[in-house]
Amino acid sequence: MWIRSLWHKFREQLRRLTVFRSLKTRFFIIFLLVGIIPSISVRSSILRNYEERAISVRTSDVQNQFKILANHLITYGYLQDTSSEIINAELEQFSNLYDGRVLIIDKNFKVIKDTYGLSEGKIVISEEVIRCFKGESVSNYDRRNGYIEITTPISFSGVSHDQIEQQDDQIQGVMLTSVSTDTIMATMDLLSRNSLILESIMMLFVVVIAFVAAGVLTAPFGRVTDAISKVKEGFTDEPISVNDYAETEHIVDAFNQLLGRMKVLDDSRKEFVANVSHELKTPLTSMKVLADSLMMQEEVPNELYKEFMTDIANEIERENKIINDLLSLVKMDKTEADLHVSQVDINEQMELILKRLRPIARKQNVEVVFESIRPVVAEVDEVKLTLAFSNLVENAIKYNKTGGFVKVILDADHQFFTLEVADSGIGIPEEAQEHIFERFYRVDKSHSREIGGTGLGLAITRSAVLMHRGSIKVSSVLEEGTTFVVKIPLIHQVS
Question: What is the pTM of this model?
């Protein structure tokens, strides 16, 4: 557990170092490790294999030589009499040849000959010696002290290994040999130095290759950054293109989509500002014309004066309505965190909305019908939805025909409630239906001006519905009527 904790702390410290957050640095480190680790492994493997092979060859050579010498010991009866000059000369020769030490041990585990002259007459009892008396030749490599220890049985010639295992008395003694590995170690040191030089050259080559490869691989990301910087600084607004990798292509595509979205938003903002300026300026212009007309006349009849003042009052009311709708729209543009959600009885809410709007409907001889399929209680912002539903019903009344109808249907399932507002009005052309939720958009500007429309009502309605994670759809046929369908979740989900 503590190892994992240390690892997380180490990774956190690396993240804080800017250099390690660079993709180029990470590529460089990866290439460096990929190049260096195999070379180190290969060098270690070569040296290890050479050492194992050299020790095996030396052990096999020594065993073969001392098997021949063991036969000579039996032939000359050296175990009974160690004065044979020939055998002693052979022992010294082998000891010098392999830079080692030879002990001759009889059946009583007594050392009868030591080429170093240190252990003669002593008793030697070890696992290797005992196993050798049972016919098993043993070899051990002591790397730390630099020697190979080998035991060779001294037995009567012409006796097979199987027979030796069955007739232990055939083994007359044991030859315990320690052979130096200094020459092998010296050769390994030479190989290690040469391979280290070669490895250093390879590492230098790998560093250069890693640096160049990391730069080449990350260059497209640099081009993406430069292209985005140019767009940010305003040098260009054209879509960028860096198609070197699938990843850079995906990044560029996402940025181009964002750039396109930003252009649309910028165009929308400019159009919105232009529309607001125009809509606010029109009533002011009308008021100025009316006021100038009154001022140019010295004696204005009361009837004309009242008429002009009525027109000015109407223009002021129109200006006030535009400003109020703009303020409502600005509020709708805020995040859904600005929703004041509560449990609302939607049936009761619609009854109140229709009660307020029915006098307007009666003036235009339009019948308003409310059909509630079932009781509906939902978690919504009552103020915002009241404004949205009021806009839908009010539009259905205003853009209706004399003697027409507006039908409001409320229904719900286990997840959503649905409000349908259908009218028998003038309808909306098919090509205009996708634009009716845009700010200041009017299908028939002259008719909208006559009834006092600002072109913001449906934009406000759509914003309110979307803030509740709902949807709004429209279907319409010219001169037959229009139907809006709003679908909103019963339970407010907080993101």
Answer: 0.46
